[in-house]
Amino acid sequence: MPMTRTRRCAVLALTALLGATTGLPGAAASAAPPAAAPPARATAPDPERWSADLTVAGGDDVNVAWRSGRLRLTDQRPTARTRPAAVAGPIAEGILLTAPRALHRPATRVRARLAARTGDGGTAVAQVRGWRSHGWTEWRDATDAVFDQPVSRVQARVVLTTRGAASQATVSALTLSADRVATTAVRPAAALTYRAYATRIGLVGGVTANGHTVRARDHFAALPSRRGLSPRDTGDYTVKVCTTGGSRCEYAPVWDVGPWNTRDDWWNPSSTRENWADLPRGRSEAQAAYQDNYNGGRDQFGRTVRNPAALDLADGTFWDGLRLTDNTWVNVTLLWTGGGARAVIGSGPLNLRAGAATSYASRGLAATTAQVPVQCYVTGQRIAGTYRTTTRWYRLVGGTYVSYAYLSSVFGGTVPRC
Fold first, then answer.
1. Domain limit, last residue, from 274, 307, 337
2. Is the domain of 252 the same as that of 156?
3. Number of structural domains, the chain?
4. Weakly modelled stretches of the chain, pLDDT under 50
5. Residues 119-133 as b or e (16 or more Cβ within 10 Å = b)
6. Domain of 224?
């Protein structure tokens, strides 16, 4: 993603000296020799600190402006163009995305201090994520974000919401610090897969939560939490959505928040889930509200939930990728929850082939910017594509193939020959 602003970094370093002194055993106190200097011990560096640039230069920022020394919403009205969810929610929102900061040393904890003014239903929160070898962590509220593995880069964003013109939500400063605390490293396993109810987004001409203007036959998905929201024109958080029979699949970037809630990361365990920790992992609040009258049958905004949808699909994903004709149950894999090598679809929607040639049947699509998990590569049909001319094809997890000619990059590990 191109940088849209220049960041200024400040790094402070301090040292601490630890030690103890003892006398010689059996000697009188008056005869004790002078205490020796305590032995030097390794020092723990102070947290790395910096201030985020909150001035707005367009690009990645959505519905925010820097005026009179404060970051604020450009439009505070809850309209279809500033909606936080595909089912137009009763709040307006805006997001400022800072440039990633390369840390001087790996860190496992990031904390933020936000100078904000809120009132009458307005909110202002800072969120952060960290880069590991196999991709970004989920976004976390930055009051005290701890990552299970050291991260080498940190990115922050500020999210403002209001319920109307009377609400107040402004920010004058954001300062962050990163340090290392003891954590239990978790080796990435297979990405999480759940059965979920999917609805069609529609709303061509509207603006998604990450600032993308919805086009006809578009290809992306929406989840009811900003924790898995990709910055515009990236597939940092990609889902694989398949029909329950497995005949068709699409890899789609998560570009919107919805369809009902905005703080329901239903795929996370209760220990880290934003809300409704009493629900089973993998069950969305909307599904529980619709099927079991959970929360009185209402979503977080008090609206009556009229379907059990846990994700939304853009029209192209719905009609062309999966060839659906109505809202239905699907299998959804949250790819960032697993590890392994990834390929970035640079030119799509790209057919997922049953073999390493265009003569093989299409089993679905991979949207532009989607990050797809690759197992190995084979030699197949020679393809002159957007990025190169090549005979290399990658086999994806699940057994379909894509040509290397249309992949902008491959990262996250070595890809062996099949």
1. 337
2. no
3. 3
4. 1-35, 40, 86
5. eeebbbbbbbbbbbe
6. 192-337
